[in-house]
Hints:
Elements: E1 4-9, H1 15-24, E2 37-39, E3 45-50, H2 55-60, E4 66-70, H3 71-83, E5 90-95, E6 101-108, E7 123-126, H4 129-139, E8 144-147, E9 163-168, H5 172-176, E10 179-188, E11 190-195, H6 201-222, E12 224-231, H7 235-240, E13 249-253, E14 256-266, H8 272-280, E15 284-290
Parallel strand pairs: 1-3, 1-4, 7-8, 7-9
Antiparallel strand pairs: 2-3, 4-11, 5-11, 6-9, 6-10, 12-14, 12-15, 13-14
Bound molecules: adenosine-5'-triphosphate and zinc ion.
Zinc ion binds next to loops.
Amino acid sequence: MTRLRIALQKSGRLATESLKLLKKCGIRLNINEQRLIAHSDNLPIDILRVRDDDIPGLVMDGVVDIGIVGENVLIEEQYEREFINKAASYEKIRVLDFGQCRLSLAVTSEFDYQGIESLNKLRIATSYPNLLRKFMSSKGYEFEDCKLKGSVEVAPRAGLADAICDLVSTGATLEANGLIEKDVIFRSRACVIQSASNIDQTKQELINKIMSRINGVIQAKESKYIMLHAPKDNLQNIINLLPGAGNPTIMSLTNREDMVAVHAVSSEDIFWDTMEELKLLGASSILILPIEKMMG
Ligand code: ATP
Ligand code: ZN
């Protein structure tokens, strides 16, 4: 069988999380910082470590089988290819729980912003001209392009543009540059994409196996294992407080006729206020444990 090729960002905001995810899926890797390719020694998988901007194209051209990339970079590449009539097919097979950010329009504090129409025909600096073009034209506005691959946030002060359209997560970078976020044009997360070209059956089975492991890892992260002692006469009320805890295990306690032990998996984290409510209902010895892996 030919080896499955997965493209990941080499270094940057998605790099560590992407690698961590694959490791949690049981893919053992020997990463050499200098090398483009890393081979797994326990599965027929090769990892290609590249710039995030290259990942959608590598998947769309069938050079790699799957890739992990931000939806912002993915859709920008798709629109770019549509624009120049280049094949852009791929399949998005799942969104992930990291890389959250938004693509926003921002202006300086002196700018009299009355809504997106205030930007009509002005110059906007961005690394995402295609996403911006689609958005502006859907609203019926035009703009002058100023494509910058980096330092977008300094463009207004440097007199290069009237506004910017850039990625924001906390907003700290905008603030540090005296910019105010006005409108969100796109929300993004990291996602897994698969090539639309023919993939042989054994390879596809391996992809399915990895995807099912990814589901298990993400589900486990969101879930908690709960153990507590509950008074029998308040058992149902206590169980009702545990989110998504289907059918908990109930066990008897030695020398306590009035109490039982409850073990349950909840589909969400349990916060302090829920624990306090459980205690008020008579629960004791409450333990909340993280779950390492999960399978249906
Ligand atoms: P590369 O060298 O791979 O081209 P880069 O500098 O283009 O890296 P990063 O800054 O590492 O990219 O961001 C990678 C991705 O992380 C973004 O495309 C986006 O999907 C996501 N991301 C999450 N939060 C942010 C943020 N605050 N700013 C920028 N990107 C973010
Ligand atoms: Zn990039």
